[in-house]
From TrEMBL:
Keywords: Iron, Iron-sulfur, Metal-binding. Residues 24-55 are annotated as: Disordered. Residues 71-308 form the Radical SAM core domain. InterPro entries: Elp3/MiaA/NifB-like_rSAM, MJ0683-like, rSAM, rSAM_sf. This is Radical SAM core domain-containing protein. It holds the Pfam family Radical_SAM. It comes from the Bacteria. The keyword Iron applies. It comes from Methylibium petroleiphilum (strain ATCC BAA-1232 / LMG 22953 / PM1).
Amino acid sequence: MATIRPAPPADPIKGRGIAVRIAHRYERDERETVDDGWESPAADDDGERPPPVTQVSEERVKTLLSANDSPDIPFSLSINPYRGCEHGCSYCYARPTHSYLNLSPGLDFETRLVAKVNAAERLRAELGRTGYQPSAINIGSVTDAYQPIERRLRLTRAVLEVLTACEHPFSIVTKSAGVERDLDLIAPAARRGQAMVFISVTTLDAGLSRRLEPRAASPQRRLQAVQRLAEAGVPVGVNVAPIIPFVNEPEIERLVEAAARAGAKSIHYTVLRLPWEVAPLFRQWLEQHVPERAARVMARVREMRGGKDYDADFATRMKGDGPWADLIRQRVRKAEARQGLVRERVVLDTSRFRPPSGDPAQQTLF
């Protein structure tokens, strides 16, 4: 396994969260980019290279459902219709998953995407297996199921059509207002007690959001999505996540208040997680965008992680440990109480599940 080295210096790329293709931890060879003085044939008239375009490759998967037994995650099954995510969140804990594709967790994660084009077909087959026991399925645990390419490919929509036809419970986590498109499927499922949505709102500062998560919906647009979901009768929670000391941490109370005003029924939070290659990438983001605070941010992160950039212990990886983690927890809970938000966990109904028929067209006949 290769040593994870600091991300090489690079100028920010407009519309991208990370500007470098850092080597992943499984690479045997290390490469270093060197300017040899020759003008690049791909450069424009000003001598600047054009911004990287998003590439999407198709994959026909053998299985779609991913099982999870982590005690700190409230679901046992998940669906991710895509690999990688164009939102480009600089802090994304899922970036290291691109290493398994022999791609960089850096720029490749947000520009070289994989679409599971047979997602609905495989889901139908897996739900129809003998002995399948329904359990609420989370959509979007390591990718955003409503990232920009979903508008064209509609893989998430196809997955929801299978789930709702079978009356199978599901939850969705997203930073996109695109979830509103599927309210015709989500709202009826919610009325049956089989659907809920979580919208992640990291900051109320649109400028900071553009730097942290460049291709996600604006904070106000996400709050508008919360409102529209709530008005449609969908239980909606807001993820104040991740909380980054001295970056969005000062906004905790205002974020909770804004979420409650929009109609959120619950608040959830995590503190910044920097597993594997995410740590050097996020340190570079700090140096590029908030250099005057970079050292303080990392000092507080390590204070909550036992002196390390990250600690994978299930007991603390989501919320951290120590005085700073305790203070954040108290602030979130007190803000919830002031807004009258309850902390009851919603249990989705599995009792109505019906296995899909062999012919997808026949599902609409019953």
